[in-house]
């Protein structure tokens, strides 16, 4: 009798409609979380956090800045992740850019508790990101650059991403009240914990 601990299971790849569903729901959750953060004037890490800061400090919208800032990273994505991942990521970024422009016209945020916004918004972004990652897509930006720099032996990916996020937090101190920066740190913990608990490719048998 075969030992279940050593038995090799056949992986079932995602169907195209499963990828489409994940792309639609994942980007919607991410966009909703970002919209909550935008309304509450909270920030997150990476290109999304940078885009929120630009939105708070200038007349430019998050969607436009997010889309433009991600453009240079697609070359690195092709080199490291391949065309499939890059195309799915491009579509995801474009959808998030569009959806974050539309959602404020569809949802009324006349009452939004800041603590709830920090936790719920981060959780939505975390779940949305997990859905995209499980279906071989991302939201571009700093993650791709950090992996590229690590591959070149320049700096470890985690350290680089931490440095970028710390820079975003420092910049936020010049734009946002300290209370909102602290709540943003809480949100960052919730987001990363959500991804860490739910995204474990070695245990997930549906990875394509």
Structure description:
The protein has 208 residues and is mostly helical. It has one domain. It contains 9 helices and no strands. Helix 1 crosses helix 5, helix 2 packs across helix 3 and helix 3 runs antiparallel to helix 5. The longest helix has 25 residues. The N terminus is likely disordered.
Mean pLDDT: 86
Radius of gyration: 18 Å
How much of the residues is beta strand, in percent? under 5%
Largest sheet: none
Domain count: the total is: 1
SSE arrangement, N to C: HHHHHHHHH
Distance between the termini: 29 Å
- Please report the total strand number as a whole number: 0
Category by helix and strand content: mainly alpha
Helix content: over 70%
Number of helices: 9
Assign an overall shape: globular
Low-confidence stretches: 1-10
Topology:
Blueprint: H1 16-40, H2 46-57, H3 62-70, H4 73-81, H5 83-106, H6 114-134, H7 142-151, H8 157-173, H9 178-198
Give a short summary of the structure.
With 208 residues, this protein is an all-alpha fold.
Which key features would you list for this structure?
mainly alpha; disordered N terminus; 208 residues; 9 helices
């Amino acid at each position: 009798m075969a030992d279940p601990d050593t038995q090799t299971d056949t992986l079932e790849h995602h169907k195209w409609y499963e990828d489409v569903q994940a792309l639609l729901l994942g980007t919607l959750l991410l966009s909703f979380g970002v919209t909550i953060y935008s309304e509450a004037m909270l920030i997150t890490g990476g290109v999304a956090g940078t885009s929120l800061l630009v939105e708070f400090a200038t007349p430019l919208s998050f969607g436009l800045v997010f889309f433009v800032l991600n453009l240079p990273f697609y070359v690195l994505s092709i080199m490291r992740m391949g065309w499939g991942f890059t195309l799915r990521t491009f579509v995801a970024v474009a959808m998030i850019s569009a959806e974050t422009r539309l959602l404020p016209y569809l949802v009324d945020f006349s009452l939004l508790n800041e603590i709830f916004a920090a936790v719920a918004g981060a959780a939505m972004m975390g779940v949305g990101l997990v859905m995209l990652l499980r279906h071989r897509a991302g939201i571009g930006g700093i993650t791709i650059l950090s992996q590229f720099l690590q591959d070149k032996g320049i700096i470890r990916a985690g350290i680089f991403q931490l440095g970028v996020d710390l820079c975003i937090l420092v910049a936020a101190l010049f734009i946002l009240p300290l209370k909102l920066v602290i709540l943003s740190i809480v949100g960052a913990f919730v987001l990363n914990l959500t991804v860490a608990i739910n995204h474990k490719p070695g245990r997930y048998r549906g990875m394509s």
